[in-house]
Design goal:
The protein is α/β, with parallel strands linked by helices. It has one domain (about 5-125): 3-Layer(aba) Sandwich (Rossmann fold), CATH 3.40.50.620. It contains six helices and five strands. Strands 3-2-1-4-5 form a five-stranded parallel β-sheet, with helices on both faces. The longest helix has 17 residues, at about 95-110. The radius of gyration is 16 Å and the shape is globular. The termini are far apart.
């Protein structure tokens, strides 16, 4: 039986418990999930791509079926190189839907055989985003329920008051 493989792309700057939740639930649908960090030189990031890859590898070290990679260029080209049949995307709110819907349609036009799977995060993670985590970290708020411990340690190095 062929391996069912999907790619879960994102910036993961930083990885959150919401990301972890989607990966764990995505693995219920596929045999292997490629967590793919986008290399975007035009976007200012808190963590380097290498730091994000390290954090994600730490988060999924004991999780069979998860592979962490980085990519640039078109997601559909990367997905083909990784032999993926689907793209996994999270929808936190209705506001996410319009953008994600447009991207899914464009990806379908570019790669008709590549499906997009949408998952909603668990209720306790629905409000969590990397942007919110960075803001809470900047102002020294409690991040223990938002990010894995390994990520929290890295955030404390970037924001000593966290």
């Amino acid at each position: 039986m062929p391996t069912r493989r999907a790619v879960y792309p994102g910036s993961f700057d930083p990885p959150t418990l919401g990301h972890i939740d989607l990966v764990e639930r995505g693995l219920l649908m596929v045999d292997e999930l490629v967590v793919a960090v986008l290399r975007n030189p035009d976007k200012a990031s808190l963590f380097t791509v290498e730091e994000r890859l390290e954090m994600l590898n730490d988060c999924f070290a004991d999780q069979p079926g998860v592979r962490v990679e980085s990519f640039d260029g078109l997601l559909v080209d990367f997905a083909k190189r990784m032999d993926c049949q689907a793209i996994l995307r999270g929808l936190r709110a209705v506001s996410d839907f319009e953008y994600e819907f447009q991207m899914a349609l464009m990806n379908r036009r570019l790669a008709p055989d590549l499906e997009t799977l949408f998952l909603m995060p668990s209720e306790d993670q629905v409000f969590v985003s990397s942007r919110i985590v960075r803001e809470v970290a900047h102002f020294g708020g409690d991040l223990t329920s938002l990010v894995p411990d390994r990520v929290l340690d890295r955030l404390k190095l970037k924001f000593p008051q966290s």
